[in-house]
Amino acid sequence: MMPLLKIDNLRIELTTRDGIAPVIDDLSLELGAGETLSFVGESGCGKSMTALGIMGLLPEKVGRIASGTVMFNGEDLAQASDARLREIRGNDISMIFQEPMTSLNPVFTIGEQIAEVLRRHQNLSNRAAWSKATELLDAVRIPNPKARVNDYPHQMSGGQRQRVMIAIALACEPKILIADEPTTALDVTVQAQIFDLLRDLGKQTGTATILITHDMGAVAEMAERMIVMYAGRKAEDGPVEQIIDHPRHPYTKGLISCVPHLMASLSDDRPELVEVSGIVPSLKSFGRDECLFASRCDRADDKCRSQRPPEMGFANNQNSACWHAGDV
Amino acid sequence: MVGEIENNDELLNVENLTVRFPVKRGGLFGGKSYLYAVDDISFSIKRGETLAIVGESGSGKTTAALAVARLVKAFKGKVQLGEFDFLNLQDEELRKARAKVQFIFQDPYASLNPRLRAEAIVREPLDSLEAGLPSGRQGRVDQLFKSVGLRPEQQRLFPHQFSGGQRQRIGIARALSTQPELIICDEPVSALDVAVQAQILNLLRRLQKEMDLTYLFISHDLGVVQHMCDSVAVMYMGKIVEHADRKSLFNNPLHPYTSALLSAVPSVDKKRREATKRILIPGDPPDPIDPPKGCRFANRCPVAQKICNEKEPPLQSVGVDHKVACHLVDERAKSPLA
């Protein structure tokens, strides 16, 4: 079966004061209909850049897709015109952002903001759009939707605003929903509600989801497959449970074990957390022909510092870009 | 609930602490009313241990910590810090006592003065609280930089030249400078990347052991809390609803809110995912300006009874080191959700 979204050898470049830096360097991935894929990594590793690249929302004049293809439904989004991308955005592919506080317009009611999408993309009449907006608020489980549709964003809590964002994103029943850290600004109980909601709505509408996060727990709970990004490159990808049980890249291993997780039962001993020393390298060193993780890796040898590791394949389509992947 | 007997190994003992803020009700003649951000809470921490206060945003955990350090004014209550009756100190005595309580803040980008060099930031509390002789202060700064894992030549740099994790290290060095006994850590790692979080958490635990520090640790991340604390207080709408040692709280949560909070944390542990049933708490907390008469959690509680809406449950002991404020929990210490 043809995947819904297929990215091949994508390279996104940013122009910085120090020259051109490849913030996404040779990334390939596939996303099937109804599937949930998760991007994991620290900040500055290119998770959000990939999402913006797919959506055609790269910062103007600074970022551009240098090479590679983004095939969606047989169409290459990397080559699509601005007008065509505007048609696709919000209709076939939509996005939820991290900050529910700042991503809604404070001077319009939420009903107006949901209805706008429907009028623009589905040519609904004003009245039909408003009644659909009320239905959508009900679908994202906002109590008393008939009255709340006239509320302004400041009258809602953070969790409710994120629900409104989800309602806007799902208004046109998109094929792909990109959720960029959708719950980072929210409390855990609200996060659990939002995850439940995304899962249920995904099942109902058959929407495929790309979940961008740094929380391995959230990945384990939500996604089937994941891609671990490091410094603009794919470090590892594969089925979520298999990677958590047996990571094949030292960075993935570090990401999993550096966080204190809640376990089934708690004992008295608390070992030191595994530290991944140092930080993500600066944009200047992106794109070098070496393993960019080498400076933080305790297995690094001369080969790691002089040659970019190719992807090594394992069972069930798990791949790791590490010279030592076999014995991690 | 708080004993009259002075326990010798207790460093901090907080009794009936209440913080309220005036709020204007609408309208021209709308009267003044008060929002009780922290409502009559009591807790204590033993020397060398860590108490974590957990809760969601708006539960009052930060306000409680600020009130303990006298950074907001407490309306009522008592804070006993070692030999000091901290809330009633004045002038010189207060200055001396302040050296014993220091704060590590959440945002390492906002909590350092951008115009000061790193060494000046760390030195500032030493000068203003007149801790130690002036001649020894530079040596103290050198030593602090070393113990938080920064290089000596980095003393001359300004905050913007450091990464987030390094800035938090400067914040920790500053907090340690006056040789405090109690350090209040307000979400010290939530602004940092996961890999850097581990570095800072390990550093905090190492320093605690080396310097016999006592931490009041504020966090919403239950994984981090589980790793750092010896006991936990769970807050909901300005009240402590459960207060227990680490193992009892995580293995046998009694208050329905605590259970719901724990069940909401996503986990990489497959066993835990299969064992936990998500406890749904629909809706939002009630209006804090006009809290309900009974239990504040009753409107969202899956097992609420009639009594819960009528009477406020007191925080009472249900076993060794385990206190809970719920009508449905008795001495047998069984969760009402079981």
Explain how this protein is built.
- The complex is a heterodimer of chains A (328) and B (338).
- Chain A has two domains: 1-87 and 224-328, Rossmann fold; 90-206, Rossmann fold (3-Layer(aba) Sandwich), CATH 3.40.50.300.
- Helix content of chain A is 32%, strand content 23%.
- Chain A is built from eleven helices and twelve strands.
- In chain A, the strands form two sheets. In chain A, strands 6-7-8-3-9-10-12-11 form an eight-stranded mixed β-sheet, with helices on both faces. A four-stranded antiparallel β-sheet of chain A has the order 2-1-4-5, covered by helices on one side.
- In chain A, helix 3 (110-122) packs across helix 4 (126-139), helix 4 (126-139) packs across helix 6 (158-170) and helix 6 runs parallel beside helix 7 (188-205).
- The radius of gyration of chain A is 21 Å and the shape is globular.
- Chain B is of the alpha/beta class and 338 residues long.
- Chain B contains eleven helices and twelve strands.
- Chain B is globular.
- Chains A and B meet through helix 6, helix 7, helix 8 and helix 10 of A and helix 6, helix 7, helix 8, helix 9 and helix 10 of B.
What is the topological layout?
The complex is a heterodimer of chains A (328) and B (338).
Chain A: E1 5-16, E2 19-31, E3 36-40, H1 47-55, E4 63-72, E5 75-76, H2 82-88, E6 93-96, H3 110-122, H4 126-139, H5 145-148, H6 158-170, E7 176-180, H7 188-205, E8 208-213, H8 216-222, E9 225-230, E10 233-239, H9 240-245, H10 250-257, H11 302-306, E11 312-314, E12 318-320
Parallel strand pairs in A: 3-8, 3-9, 6-7, 7-8
Antiparallel strand pairs in A: 1-2, 1-4, 4-5, 9-10, 10-12, 11-12
Helix pairs in contact in A: 3-4, 4-6, 6-7
Chain B: E1 10-24, E2 32-46, E3 50-54, H1 61-68, E4 76-81, E5 84-85, H2 91-98, E6 101-104, H3 118-128, H4 134-147, H5 164-176, E7 182-186, H6 194-211, E8 214-219, H7 222-228, E9 231-236, E10 239-245, H8 246-251, H9 256-263, H10 270-275, H11 306-310, E11 316-317, E12 322-324
Parallel strand pairs in B: 3-8, 3-9, 6-7, 7-8
Antiparallel strand pairs in B: 1-2, 1-4, 4-5, 9-10, 10-12, 11-12
Helix pairs in contact in B: 3-4, 3-5, 4-5, 5-6
